[in-house]
């Protein structure tokens, strides 16, 4: 076997150096992985908290837009804004009672816009969320019954 000039093949020193290189590189990859495993969840939690607050602020803002649209009789825009507010409240982990109220209002606006399919969806969502929150779903129940009875396009209570 030929070896490089100045190097003794299969020497104890060469084997020891190779062993140290392997052990060092293994330790470094473990440390990098360990650091990534510890830091990444903290970064993700911080980003999650920021996005949660952003979603809740957006939901409140969209609820205000929906109220303004409803006060002007623009039921289509009110329905879209209330639905978007409900979606953002859900993404931001807003309380179930608020989500139920937003869906109820979206159902009322959908009813005013003669969108019975959307109204039924939002009233059903409001009922389910009201039950989760422990609140009464009587208004949404009544509105859903009126809708299913075939009442003309009106803003249901």
TrEMBL record:
<protein>
    <submittedName>
        <fullName>Uncharacterized protein</fullName>
    </submittedName>
</protein>
<dbReference type="InterPro" id="IPR011990">
    <property type="entry name" value="TPR-like_helical_dom_sf"/>
</dbReference>
């Amino acid at each position: 076997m030929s070896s490089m000039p100045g190097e003794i093949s299969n020497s104890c020193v060469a084997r020891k150096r190779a062993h140290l290189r392997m052990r060092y590189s293994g330790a470094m990859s473990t440390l990098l992985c360990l650091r990534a495993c510890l830091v990444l969840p903290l970064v993700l939690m911080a980003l999650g908290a920021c996005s949660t607050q952003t979603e809740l602020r957006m939901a409140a803002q969209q609820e205000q837009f929906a109220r303004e649209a409803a006060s002007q009789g623009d039921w289509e825009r009110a329905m879209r804004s209330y639905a978007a507010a409900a979606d953002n409240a859900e993404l931001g982990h807003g309380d179930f009672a608020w989500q139920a109220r937003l869906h109820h209002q979206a159902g009322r606006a959908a009813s005013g816009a003669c969108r019975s399919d959307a109204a039924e969806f939002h009233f059903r969502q409001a009922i389910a969320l009201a039950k989760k929150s422990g609140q009464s779903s009587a208004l949404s129940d009544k509105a859903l019954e009126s809708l299913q009875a075939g009442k003309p396009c009106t803003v249901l209570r």
